[in-house]
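step: validate -> pass
step: tokenize input -> pass
step: predict -> running
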Amino acid sequence: MALTNRPRTVGAYGTAAGTGTLAALLLVAVCGSPMYVGWVQDHTDPTGAGGWFLRLLAWPAWRLHADDPSQGVLATNLRAILLVVLAAALLYLLPGPQVARVESSGSQFFSGWGAYALAAGCTALLATLLGPHGSLFAAFQGASTGVTYGFFAGWIVGLASLGGRA
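step: predict -> pass
step: emit ->
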């Protein structure tokens, strides 16, 4: 009896974790950019749902230069860097789509969404603790903001994860 299991060939699409990581990188690069952050602060209403959502997307803001000379650019951009790194790690580590009995788009979607929400919460916690005036209370408050961001923006990463193989 011949073995029929052959290794998968790399097709036109990447892995679900790879496409999710690319989406996370694009979310942070575009929505965290100084140009987007400036635009959203000047042109949206924070009391409306749309304005609140657009402002929330700017949460992992990064800068080209540090506002405070005592901090470097790395310390200023720690949240954006950690978010992309943790999102990539969690997307690769979460085994949802790989161990599912039935391959489904739902497991890829929820795995990507959950990984991004968890990455955002952990990022906020770590960035606040490692920041200049980090306290445990401030880290807990920051984590709640990060999880809120991850919950409302994570569906984008979840949708991007649908584009790849498990």
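step: describe -> Residues 16-63+71-161 form one domain.
step: cleanup -> pass
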